[in-house]
Specification:
Layout (H helix, E strand, L loop, with lengths): L1 E5 L4 H12 L3 E5 L2 H11 L5 E5 L19 H12 L5 E5 L5 H6 L4 E5 L5 H14 L1
Parallel strand pairs: 1-2, 1-3, 3-4, 4-5
């Protein structure tokens, strides 16, 4: 099962990626918004689920956007992903619960989890549950 994981972190994300792969998921990891958008435009909505970090460097795509020093880059990327893949479920990883765009993004096709509280095995179970429901 194809998953897209978009996050610029290196060390902590490695554990999530390893557990997801060990759980039988085919995970594509993009470290920045530009790579993720390029992949989605090139291949279309081939992913059963997208895991998106809420804060990351803006890349070329959002260089001129007000990303609040990368704090809200995820909001711009989220909007572009929704335009390209409107029905694909998204897991939003964040450490910022009070950002206005995150509050607006909550809904049936979006689940929000705190990175600091989420163990890799927990993410595997969440992904497994979300993909079996779809």
């Amino acid at each position: 099962m194809n998953l897209l994981f978009i996050d610029d972190d290196k060390a902590p994300i490695r554990y999530y990626l390893e557990e997801l792969a060990g759980g039988g998921f085919d995970v594509t990891h993009c470290r920045n918004p530009d790579a993720a958008l390029c992949l989605l435009k090139e291949k279309g909505c081939i992913f059963r689920l997208i895991i998106l970090d809420s804060a990351m460097p803006p890349g070329q795509r959002y260089t001129h956007a007000d990303t609040d020093a990368g704090l809200t880059t995820g909001s711009f990327l989220f909007a572009d992903i929704r335009a390209l893949c409107p029905d694909t479920p998204i897991i939003l990883l964040t450490n910022f619960v009070d950002l206005e765009w995150i509050v607006r993004a909550r809904g049936t096709n979006v689940r929000e989890y705190r990175k600091l509280d989420l163990m890799p095995l927990e993410l595997v179970e969440i992904v497994r549950n979300m993909t079996t429901i779809q």
